[in-house]
User: Fold this.
Amino acid sequence: MNYFVGAYLNSQLTGIEKAQVNRIQLFADAGLPAQCLYTKYNPKIHANAAKFGLQGKCFTLYDYFQEAIDDQAVAKDWVKYWEETCHFRLEFVDVAPDIRVFDEHDHYVLYAHFTGEDYQWPVYMNFFDSDHRKVKRDLYDSRGFLSQTKFLKERQRVQAEIFYNREGQVKLERTYWEVNDQTVLKRIIVKDFQQRDWFFDTEEELQTFFFDTLYATGDVYFCDKNGYIGQAMANTASNVKVCAVFHSTHARGQADVMGSPLKNSYRVPLSQPEKFNRFIVSTTLQKKDLLARFDNLPPIDVIPVGYVQPNKVNLRQKQPNRIIGVARFSPEKQVLHQIKVVERLVAEFPDVELHLFGFGAQSEEQPLRDYVVTHDLTEHVFFRGFVTDLAAEYTQASLEMVTSNEEGFSLATLEALSYGVPVISYDIRYGPTELVEDGVNGNLVERDNQDILYWKVRSYLKDAKLRKTYMKNSLRLAKRYTEAATIEKWRILLEEV
Assistant:
């Protein structure tokens, strides 16, 4: 089995999880066995997996020890159970699919939150003592069974966590202490696994045990989250095959890739390269930079994190002044640069639009929204949120802007080009420099030079002939990243690793 290992799979995808979803589909099309594997506890992961077409193709470390790696789901009529079996009184909350539960003595005992008003799929239940203090929280897996209990003490701090299998048997325990007024994990116990209990002091120790235990001859782990689980991977047994996948730049400063400090995400594989069988990067330039700086690295394979499928594109459907931006709202993406370009374009192009697809912390997104409002751009800049499939948006768009100060590959750039959407990007390591040919299928602009960025976008919008040329070239050059070519690269790696 080929395992693509990450930390979490949320309801919205970052670039790394998007790359994993693409890779799962690629391997499925090629007839290669593959699953996504995640290390963090997440009772919603199987619902998230279904959203992205990963049913039966992912599970977590906790699923494994809870004996629940499949997608089997069982509903329960909780209203009927409480009213007819327990004879409890229920109060239905008006603003949410929630219920307050009172026992036969009319004492308020628990508050339950559900995913819908059929009240069959609980998310959590909070339990209260006689003083209405919350003392326990039960978390339910999206598949319907009680998955975890949190025991709470003063100030709602966690004292212990218990994890169950579908039959309600305890399979794992986590206990906590208070150290300097902070709740600190002190002990993890895996219960009744291989006919005994197992004891761990840290999450990292548990992860390594999990990787070693799950591994079978012929398996390969592809570590997509080296910052979270790189050390646990490095600590696995010598027979375990581990490949580190680089999704971003490895150096903090792009002006000096030879001397700049390393990012924490890649500190482990680059400081302990002997623990890894292979490195995988998305671009030839990153491979060149790694080999120039480091000795004794394992073999490095260049395999793009994305690939293109044949798309039917009608260039006549594109709206000339419709620009798209696909990026998380985070500092390194510099989305405000795109908004400021559009602000300067409005006078000359009254119908110009920038559609932003992404998500991020409120602290990052709200200033962008405030800028749009205070600069009267609400008719020109639109926050569209996270969208799973952007095909319809790429079909209409005439241009994509990329204003990041760094990229590992930029899946959004490749996707845009495959729909005949040229890209004007800052000239950064690594992806855009290989995906965009300046003056052919877009433009590469000096990093952070917003004036040149504006002039390049303006020139593109003003010149219908240039737009058509760039669009046709985008479609042509994107074909370098076909599914067949990418599969072949993976086949070669799997034969050699």
User: Anything to note?
Assistant: The two ends are 13 Å apart (CA to CA). The longest helix spans residues 15-30.
